[in-house]
Amino acid sequence: MPRYAILVWGPSESRPHGGYGDEQTMRDTLAAIGAFNERLREAGSLVLVEGLAGAEASTVVDARGPDVLISDGPYVESKEGVNGLWVVDLADLDEALALATEASRLCDRPLEIRPVGRL
Amino acid sequence: MTVDADAAVTRTHREEWARVVAGLARRYGDLDLAEETAAEAFATAVERWPVDGVPPNSGAWITTTAHRKAIDRLRREARRDEKQQEALMLHDDSPPDPPGAVEDDRLRLVFTCCHPALSMEARVALTLRIVGGLTVREIAHAFLVQETTMGQRISRAKAKIKTAGIPYRVPRAEDLPARVAGVLAVLYLIFNEGYLASGAETDPIRRDLTGEAIRLTRLVRELLPEGSGERREATGLLALMLLTESRAAARVSSDGELVRLDEQDRGAWDRALIDEGTALVRELLGTPGREEGSPGRYALLAAINAVHVSAPHARDTEWEQIVALYAQLERVDPNPIVTLNKAIAVSEFDSPDVALAMVERLGDRLAGYHAFHATRAELLRRLGRSADARAAYDRAIELAGNTAEVAHLIRRRGQLAAPVPNLPNLPNGETS
């Protein structure tokens, strides 16, 4: 069964109320996403769901050379970035599309579906 | 004998290719393998049939040969990889295709190739290769790209299907209308690329592409459930293609210039295509008291074409009906190009003034579209505004990509009254 990462795109830096405008909208959004996650968990398809802290909290480590370079992140400066993800086991891309359509509506963000690579 | 065998291979290829690939794809779950072994089976037929004679059931011969090649290949790969050996044994245990599933297989193939997760370019190329059976060289030629580029485009698309897990099945009911609309959009794009081919180096009309688009649309229509809204949409598209194609022979003059509808030799139109297309339009629009669904975009466009081709002479065209159909189309598919076309009908039915006012309102959205400037030019010329018309033709010529269309626009511009030089401003008073 293929595994997909569903990446949530939004503002890179953290914003007040999670970028949802006001406190109530944020709470409603989180509650709706919570219920959605519960359904995925019950269906047995949820592997992982996490939100990421803003890019201002990120740190870059590069140990490819002889010295370990540690610097303030993010690795690529951009207004928009990934600020959350689901990892789910599903039958095929059409299932992932159906799920992502619902999730995009719930969190009011564009989503990107990436198959989790077979490394 | 050889000629017969060659003709038999060509005919079998046209009739059976999609069915063979679809069956292989379902059996082995691998589009790449399906495409390659189907191609190998036809290559074998090219060698064997002139020598051995054409087999009585040529489709079955191709299917059997392709399956044998697929199994051979899997065995060869399996010897290199023990894990695949297990997979192969599972495959060998799989039951043979149930007889009724074959039609569905081709439909699955269409939905996979036209999946919205693929780029439009990839969908077009894959559909022509995998469903249509055109060679990579033919597709590359049709779209004026290098064969290697087209080969890569198709390989990348097939790799994405595999990696992203694009399914090989008919979409769920709630996705079906949108997915069928997506499939029809791919087919219409193929048709339009044939009908108004872009690029300075290409023939203005590519009958190979329009013919292929019509063939594939027939196939998709036949595969969709009878009486469904999706099938009606496909019927509308088929009718539109047939009625458009019916005029192809009259549409480009012997010296390669586009001939406008009102100047075309109506005797050169293909009556068989007109009859078939018109009958389909009647089926779609003519059933009184139909409750489910108003006619879709393609059906309305087909109906507009049907009105045009039913007029014995251009002056007999029922413009009122065409304006009404465009108004209906604007409600189904509100977009500035529809309004632009409605304006042309309005200029005939009402007046060029009214039409020009409609067209001018589209300027900010259609400024980069050659037909906007060409339409403006024609209306301005009818209103006697030659200088404005000339500027509009200039812009249309700059933007038009089709060779026959450019030739037509240049001639129309050339027929305008010569510009009156602004004498007092000429430095030495010369007027030439």
Protein described:
The complex is a heterodimer of chains A (119) and B (432). By secondary structure, chain A is of the alpha+beta class. Chain A has 2 helices and 6 strands. Chain A has a single domain (3-115), classed as Dimeric alpha+beta barrel (Alpha-Beta Plaits, 2-Layer Sandwich), CATH 3.30.70.1060. Chain A has helices at residues 23-43, 93-107; strands spanning 3-11, 46-51, 59-62, 69-72, 80-89, 111-115. Chain A is globular, with a radius of gyration of 16 Å. The model of chain A has no long low-confidence stretch (mean pLDDT 93). Chain B has 432 residues and is an all-alpha fold. Chain B has helices spanning 2-28, 31-52, 58-80, 82-93, 101-113, 120-131, 136-142, 147-164, 176-195, 207-223, 229-245, 248-251, 271-285, 297-310, 319-332, 336-349, 352-360, 363-366, 370-382, 386-399, 403-414. Chain A binds chain B through residues 2, 4, 90-94, 96-98, 113, 115, and chain B through 115-117, 163-167, 169, 171-172, 175.
What average pLDDT do the residues of chain B reach?
A: 87
Shape of chain B: elongated
If helices are DSSP runs of H or I spanning 4 or more residues, what is the number of helices of chain A?
2
Report low-confidence residues of chain B grouped into runs of 5 or more: 88-95, 422-432
Looking across the biggest beta sheet of chain A, what order are the strands in?
2-5-1-6
